[in-house]
Amino acid sequence: MKPMFTALRIPNYRLWATGALVSNTGTWMQRVAQDWLVLTVLTNNSGVATGVTTGLQFGPIALLAPVAGTVADRVDRRRLLMVTQALSGVLAGVLGVLVVTGTARLWHVYVLAGLLGVVAAFDAPARHAFVSEMVPPEALSNAVGLNSASFHAGRLIGPGVAGLLIHWLGTGPVFLLNAVSFGAVLLSLRGMDLRALQPLPRTLRDPGDTTGTGGTTGAGDTTGIRRYGSVMAGLTYVRRRPDLVLLLSVVGMVGTFGLNFQLTTALMARTVFDKGAGEYGLLGSIMAIGSLGGALLAARRERPTPALVVSATAAFGLASLAAALMPSYTTFAVALVPVGLSALTVMTAANATVQLSTAPELRGRVMALYGAIFMGGTPVGAPLVGWVGEHFGARWTILLGGGVSLATAVVAAAWLIVRDRRASACSADAEGLREEAVSHEGDDVQEGVRDDEGHDAARAPEPLPEHDPHHDVPEERPEPLVEVVGPAQERARHENRAVRPAESS
Questions:
Q1: How far from chain centre, in Å, is Cα 54?
Q2: CATH topology of domain 8-199+233-424
Q3: Which of 49, 69, 410, 449 is most enclosed, with most CB atoms within 10 A?
Q4: CA dist., res. 308 & res. 298, Å (int)
């Protein structure tokens, strides 16, 4: 099997990937249907209402990140995922029933989107950390890439199918199909070989460990749990890791302002190109072509670097700016392919870099923080982008995201350059000190004695003095810290001689 699909050799991961592909397809179908429901049925092309719905769906991820990450680090992640997937299916089914029966209102969508966000807040960190239990460390980067491939394969299939179903049947059946799709993940989780899983350690002695290896505590050692088992442990760990701070900052800016294509493509299709649901869904599928290509490339990459994340961010910013200026629906659709490719590279490279460099004991909490920053900016970014679209036009929503992403890449690149120069300077200083120390050591060895030919010779060590038994000096014993005074000591004081305390038998 080729290196691109190494993780699929593992039976448990194959089950997981299969179920995830079905569920991801359903998830993308619901996202398209939900936006179209709000934009065209429940409102009159309101970008703000659509942005609020998106914000409510992702807002809880930011608010609950510390708690959700702690839960993911402390409980059985497989069981937690079974609960979150079941609840997600129930919420999708409720929305589908409301739409099919004609009783859905905008506030219904708001409430259900918020509840789905709460469930997703606990699902995301558990899902990220659970991958580490299914595959060994050497296959983790490949598994992360394949996860992204599965996610964007669903994104490739889902919007197109959703557009056709909306055109033929309306949005209600789309929500019902998504509810059923969560059953695929539940079946894959139930069918796994539990003996083949590799549960991660769940405590950490020192969150300042910058090696990424962490430390485990024994079963009876609760020091690490008491001190670092809190919800703030992830923040403490990340704060002492400048490389993680950089990655999370880049991801936060791109996620908040740049990755709102669920909203921006809907506005472009509806208000700029005057297209319907089918053409809107097709834009998502076309963009997913680039995303899927980026995911497969990521699966071949053994270990990404922060420099790759920054470079991909710059490429994403430039591609977004170009797409915003396309004059027709066709050219805009084609321009979305490089946008999807660069966006996916940012996401997978950042995700894999954070996971591979984080201590296993805190991976759930750090990945919860990652998810909170990546998707939690949506409650701020989506309404803002929707407002920009209503007042300045849909093109400006993409121009805003592209410009912010490009500026973020420039600042991050400058930070990396300064860091590398400082590291080089420190390395040069250390090498100079080492050479100076070696030079002084050679001078000390060579000084003082000349041989018969007049050259410097090494000074011979002085011989040790011979032992003279007549000049033995009795060993001095340290005085006791506390003197015990008894009758014998009192008599000795009167006789002007020292008597030592008797040793106890």
A1: 21
A2: Growth Hormone; Chain: A; (1.20.1250)
A3: 69
A4: 11
- Best CA proximity match to 212, nearest among 426, 40, 356, 365: 356
Structure tokens at 246: 């950089």
Instruction: Please give the residue that has the higher pLDDT: either 338 or 260.
Output: 338
Reduced to 3 states (helix: H, G, I; strand: E, B; else coil), residue 9 is helix
Distance from the first to the final alpha carbon of the chain: 77
- Residue for token digits 């910013």? 317
Closest by Cα among 313, 319, 337, 162 to 252:
313
DSSP β-bridge partners for residue 456: 450
What are residue 384's phi and psi, to 5 degrees? -65, -45
Handedness of CA 3, 124, 306, 400 (dihedral sign): positive
Give the DSSP H or E segment for 457: strand 456-457
pTM over 0.85: no
Q: Which residue, chain included where needed, has tokens 């390395």?
A: 427
Residue 64 is given by DSSP the state: T
Confirm if 127 and 148 have CB atoms less than 8 A apart: no
For the chain, the residue count is 505
Q: How many CB atoms lie within 10 A of CB 21?
A: 18
User: What is the rounded CA–CA span in Å between residue 431 and residue 29?
Assistant: 59
CA distance 365 to 72: 7
pLDDT in tens, 361-409: 777 778 778 877 877 677 778 788 888 888 888 899 999 999 999 999 9
Per-residue pLDDT tens over the stretch 175-214: 999 999 999 999 999 999 988 887 765 544 444 443 333 4
